[in-house]
Design goal:
The protein is an alpha+beta fold. The chain folds into two domains: 3-235, no CATH class; 242-381, no CATH class. It is 56% helix and 9% strand. It contains 18 helices and ten strands. It has a four-stranded antiparallel beta sheet. α17 packs across α18 (354-374). The chain is globular, with a radius of gyration of 22 Å. The two termini are 33 Å apart. 38% of the residues are buried. The model has no long low-confidence stretch (mean pLDDT 91).
Length: 383
């Protein structure tokens, strides 16, 4: 670790400890920026000494963070003095509650997330969802983004800045993941801080710091009615996107019946029975919670047991390039919109042609796995 990294690490810790916190916004902003730095490197832009990411990524993170807290049948305050039905609280609770109440009888968090990523937000809730998205954007850019770091730097927008460049989305256009990421503008922070988030963000956002302090704040704001353990459980809740997994499973079942077998993506050996086929996450779900079609591959059950939650090594990905591209091409032909949207947003960024997309996806996957192995310390795997 060089001195500039140490200095940035110290400043972030000082901000977490010393910044005034009337609500949980600053925790959510830092947690989001760390995860975005680690997961969406392919969407970053460089401008001078600053790194820029789409602000829509932060809005999406806040949707995921706050949904379990807002939807909880036990009221979980996220602002000092916030009480149920008091009319006083976090800026987006009412608009968020409209969405969580709609989905309460329709499958809850996972159903909402599936509708969101698959562009199926129903018309009946679409206006409320739009209000929520813009409420989150307004809150992020005018509150924690403005004030975070004041205790250290004595000025506003000292750590994060909203760079604007928002594009208008027509009022009658249903919002979806792609529109959020492409049209809500950008936010930026220093390259030095980006490096710290990439290398040490997991320590900053772990139980000993951000998440635990967020849970402690929640306990304090509830006057002890909400335990730290209960708050942590909600803060770790993630939607189960089983619908996307089922699409992948059905695709490979149909392909198996058409061909009479499937090639294991890792060994290349023919899989002769359906019972021997496992649908493997190329990058394990426990490491990166992604159920996009590109991340789902047919694997021999025994091979999958050996891989477990390990990360494919970059050289092994290169070795299996042809088989990966073959399956990706079949998935692309069967589900063009779903496949391309998923792989572009979560792995490659934009690409002009299908051939470029596949080659770029291999390179980005190798980079992602190298980062997880070399920087995050996950175990490398190959046959």
């Amino acid at each position: 670790m060089i001195q500039s990294d140490i200095d940035q690490f110290k400043k972030i810790n000082a901000i977490i400890e010393r910044d005034s916190k009337d609500a949980t916004y600053k925790f959510a902003l830092l947690r989001g920026a760390i995860e975005i730095s680690q997961e969406y490197d392919h969407l970053k832009q460089e401008s001078g000494n600053r790194i820029e990411f789409p602000l829509g990524l932060l809005v999406e993170k806040w949707l995921l963070y706050y949904y379990p807290l807002i939807a909880s049948p036990v009221f979980i305050p996220q602002k000092n003095g916030e009480r149920e039905n008091s009319g006083y609280g976090i800026a987006f609770r009412d608009s968020f509650s409209a969405v969580t109440q709609y989905y309460a009888e329709r499958g809850g968090f996972s159903a909402f997330y599936n509708d969101y990523v698959n562009e199926h937000i129903p018309e009946s809730i679409s206006p409320d969802f739009r209000d929520l998205v813009y409420n989150l954007k307004r809150t992020i850019t005018t509150m924690p983004m403005k004030h975070l770091g004041r205790s250290v730097f004595q000025e506003d927008y000292s750590v994060f800045r909203y760079e604007g460049r928002q594009r208008r989305i027509p009022a009658n256009t249903p919002l979806n993941q792609e529109l959020l990421i492409q049209n809500l503008g950008y936010f930026s922070f220093s390259k030095e801080l980006y490096a710290v988030f990439q290398y040490f963000g997991s320590f900053i956002s772990g139980e000993d710091s951000l998440l635990y302090k967020w849970a402690e704040f929640t306990k304090s704001a509830s006057k002890g009615e909400i335990s730290v353990e209960f708050a942590l459980e909600k803060l770790r809740t993630y939607p189960i996107t089983e619908r996307d997994v089922q699409v992948g499973k059905r695709f490979y079942e149909n392909l198996f019946h058409q061909q009479g077998d499937l090639a294991c993506v890792w060994s290349g050996e023919s899989i002769k029975t359906m019972n021997s086929i496992h649908i493997d996450h190329l990058i394990p779900f426990s490491v990166w919670k992604n159920n996009d079609l590109w991340n789902l591959m047919p694997v021999n059950a025994k091979v999958n047991g050996r891989k477990s939650d390990k990360i494919p090594s970059p050289d092994f990905i290169e070795e299996r390039r042809d088989t990966l591209i073959q399956y990706w091409t079949l998935l692309m032909n069967a589900y063009p919109n779903m496949f391309k949207r998923g792989i572009s947003l979560s792995l490659t960024g934009s690409s002009d042609s299908q051939a470029d997309l596949m080659d770029l996806a291999i390179e980005r996957m190798k980079e992602k796995c190298e980062y997880l192995i070399e920087v995050r310390g996950y175990e490398a795997w190959r046959l």
